[in-house]
Amino acid sequence: MLTAIDIAKQVKQKKITALEVLERCLKTIKEKDAEIGAFLEVFEKSAASQAKAVDEKVASGKTPGKLAGVPVAIKDNLLYYGHKMTCASRILENYISPYTADSVRRLINEDAVIIGRTNMDEFAMGSSTENSAFKKTKNPANAAHVPGGSSGGSAAAVAAGMVPLALGSDTGGSIRQPAGFCGVYGLKPTYGAVSRYGLTAFASSLDQIGPFATAIDDIELCFSVISGHDPKDSTSIRNPVYARNFDLKNLRIGLPKEYFIRGIDGEVHAKVMETAKNLEKSGAKLIDVSLPHTGYAVPAYYIVASSEASSNLARYDGIRYGLSLKNKNASLTDVYKKTRGAGFGSEVKRRIMLGTYSLSAGYYDAYYLKAQKIRNLIKGDFESAFKKADVILTPTSPAPAFKFGEKTSDPISMYLSDIFTIPCNLAGISGISMPCGRHSTGLPIAVQFLSKPLSEYAVFDMIRTYEKSL
After folding, report:
1. Counting beta carbons within 10 angstroms of the beta carbon of residue 34, is it exposed (0 to 12), middle (13 to 18) or buried (19 or more)?
2. DSSP 37
3. Which fold has domain 4-226?
4. Per-residue confidence at 57, pLDDT binned at 50, 70, 90?
5. DSSP H/E element including 41
6. What is the pLDDT of residues 311-352, one digit of tens each?
7. Which of 153, 217, 234, 406 has the fewest CB atoms nearer than 10 Å to its CB?
């Protein structure tokens, strides 16, 4: 599979057509996806129309966009007009998007080809893509292991070479964790850098859209396209000013002690430290930093995220759209109970109940308000750490991808697989997962770079310089 940058370049130079690129991707999907299960639907007809339009633009002498002819897969919680969008849930099984998400629109405006929608944990609630109502997605590195979640389909599609780029969403690690499990790059942008308009809401104060790719240059290219102010999203940043040019020489890289004392797999720890030492050899300065409230991140996150989910998912009531189990004699309460009972999976129900309880009278102060106070403390931890360090280096996950069924009976164990990614979302900062080697099992291992808000391009520069030094 060519990189996105190479595809766009060759399409512009007429060395290959967008239709030929699409046909190659479709061929790979047909060969591999029956085993991997990354896609819920492939948009062959509309993708072919888009590819032909790109070729016609090139043939007529017009200048095509940045992503000329590049096939892109989108997570099944992003709206794309006239196409199905189900959030991998029975409650939206036949829902057709009435408009297009801003991030997808920006891709199309730059002549990308939207090739299909990828599998995910239902309503983005999960860390393994085992919670999809329709299928399980397998890790391309080892089919007995999960691809991570909730954006497991997007990560697997890129890792298997089916597409050069894919979009996912990250609420507590749902881009970075599957990217790490599958051995590709995954970016969770600064909160507000990418519009959430057209992203089905899970936890509105935490959700962010970001790309998967096999090369840092492709991550940067995609981010440059999908980011930018959107008046339709009230949390979208106006006139963002990005930090630039992190010089690896004398760059201060923080190692948070709290991330290296909690049950990390020995080989993961060794690979992360190897990366740190290589950065030091390239001129960076390693320093110890502390993020003292890290241990409270997971419980705070699951109260905040579940509370917001309880509110956001109240719209799926069997009345307005989606699944509706009603009859002439049913009361409104009966419709609610039957529709939501049959339409939502167990993990979604668990989080709705947790969130509703946390927001209920008598418990709001004890749970939700306290969780928000912890969130502020975690944000303060990062602000203090970034006074000493330019970038923070951590493992993406405590261990490589786990096996199917290994954590499904123990939700707390599943939640803890995101312990290193969740704080980033609570603080609203930028995070990117980068492959750093292989475990003795053959599974990928990844590191995570956390940085100040709006420092994505500086981190891209740093990673590029680091890779060249190797």
Report:
1. exposed
2. -
3. Amidase signature (AS) enzymes (3.90.1300)
4. very high
5. strand 39-42
6. 999 999 998 888 998 877 888 899 999 999 999 999 999 999
7. 234
pLDDT digits (tens, 9 = 90+) for 164-198: 999 999 999 999 999 999 999 999 999 999 999 99
Q: Are strands 252-256 and 391-395 parallel, antiparallel or unpaired?
A: parallel
Distance CA 330, CA 342 (A): 16
Residue 24 and residue 113 in contact, taking contact as beta carbons nearer than 8 Å: no
Nearest to residue 291, comparing CAs of 208, 175, 394? Answer: 394
Catalytic: which of 103, 132, 150, 358? 150
Residue 409 pLDDT greater than 90, yes or no: no
57 is catalytic: no
Assess whether pLDDT exceeds 90 at residue 246: no
Starting at the edge strand found earlier in the chain, the sheet holding 285-289 runs 39-42, 113-118, 71-75, 165-170, 208-213, 185-188, 430-438, 444-451, 391-395, 252-256, 285-289
- Catalytic one of 75, 188, 271, 452: 75
CA triple 226-228-234, angle to 5 deg: 115
Catalytic annotation on 46?
A: no
407 catalytic per annotation: no
Question: What tokens appear for 112 in the block?
Answer: 């990308």
Could you tell me where the beta strands, DSSP code E, fall in 152-284? 165-170, 185-188, 208-213, 252-256
Contact in structure between 269 and 261 (CB atoms under 8 Å): no
Q: What are phi and psi of 306, to 5 degrees?
A: -70, -35
What are the beta bridge partners of residue 208?
170
Cα Rg of the chain (Å, integer): 21
**What is the domain partition of the chain in residue ranges?**
4-226
CB distance 138 to 152 below 8 Å: no
Q: Name the catalytic one among 128, 151, 154, 174.
A: 174
CA 200 to chain CA mean position, Å: 13
Say which amino acid occupies 28.
T
